[in-house]
Amino acid sequence: xxxxxxxxxxxxxxxxxxxxxxxxxxxxxxxxxxxxxxxxxxxxxxxxxxxxxxxxxxxxxxxxxxxxxxxxxxxxxxxxxxxxxxxxxxxxxxxxxxxxxxxxxxxxxxxxxxxxxxxxxxxxxxxxxxxxxxxxxxxxxxxxxxxxxxxxxxxxxxxxxxxxxxxxxxxxxxxxxxxxxxxxxxxxxxxxxxxxxxxxxxxxxxxxxxxxxxxxxxxxxxxxxxxxxxxxxxxxxxxxxxxxxxxxxxxxxxxxxxxxxxxxxxxxxxxxxxxxxxxxxxxxxxxxxxxxxxxxxxxxxxxxxxxxxxxxxxxxxxxxxxxxxxxxxxxxxxxxxxxxxxxxxxxx
Length: 348
Fold this sequence. Notes:
Blueprint (H helix, E strand, L loop, with lengths): L2 E9 L2 E8 L6 E10 L2 H8 L4 H7 L2 E2 L3 E8 L10 E4 L2 E2 L26 E2 L11 E5 L3 E4 L5 H4 L2 H12 L9 E4 L3 H11 L6 E5 L2 H4 L6 E4 L12 E4 L6 H11 L5 E4 L11 H7 L2 E4 L5 H10 L3 H8 L2 E7 L2 H13 L5 E6 L2
Helix pairs in contact: 4-5, 4-9
């Protein structure tokens, strides 16, 4: 019998230590969590910035869905003990028949849109644990020589890949990225390694925009943005600021263009539907990613130039020995406006 210790959020700004028996199935491996990062979604649960009734259904839950671990035991022999793996948080239940699901088998959509899917740290326990028993099919091997701090960004890279995969991107498309935050930076970095056409980044923070190297950058509301004839735009803003960003895209993008929405807004936003109709625009929504997206992300991490760009998002690392350390990093991340993440090193 094996036990694992972890931190669960039980109400806004309140964590508790849980010691639980580690239940293992024949199709699961035991993973020691090594490095992790906090996402904006984790911060929303920490601050209680979601509908009160919904939060009541979520708590208590382990947060964190961006993590890298080491294989401790694999009864299937798929992985070796000590292998470094990324944990894919989008989980299709064992009883769900993916081969008969029209969404899971869809070329345009995929398992990340399946209504039966569960997501770690949302409606399924996340990775803020010492050890976790996790489905083999949701583990993706990361080269052992890749720094675990950089590898933590595998999840965000996979989300960017999912957004790109959502549309039929042409070689000569001019791409606009609205948002100078982490997802905007990761998406831009991925596109620079996959796309030969022009890339434009639009944001509000001049210091952050300076870190987007090798692409054109503009402050929001700059009249010169429209001179680039953008025909594909990615919205990576989310929150209350998404409304202005989406409407700026609608005004700027050329007729017949495609807009990909990736930012999460808790409340509805007002957008100019008249202009959408007049321009014949297409809007796509993107959520999460698939195991295959993680595999492609793992391949990108073998590229030294790509890793060098992603490494710039690492602000530092923090060792988590106890619940006080865990509280402290959540407080710091909830007020941080820096472009990057502090990597959590689980030592408990």
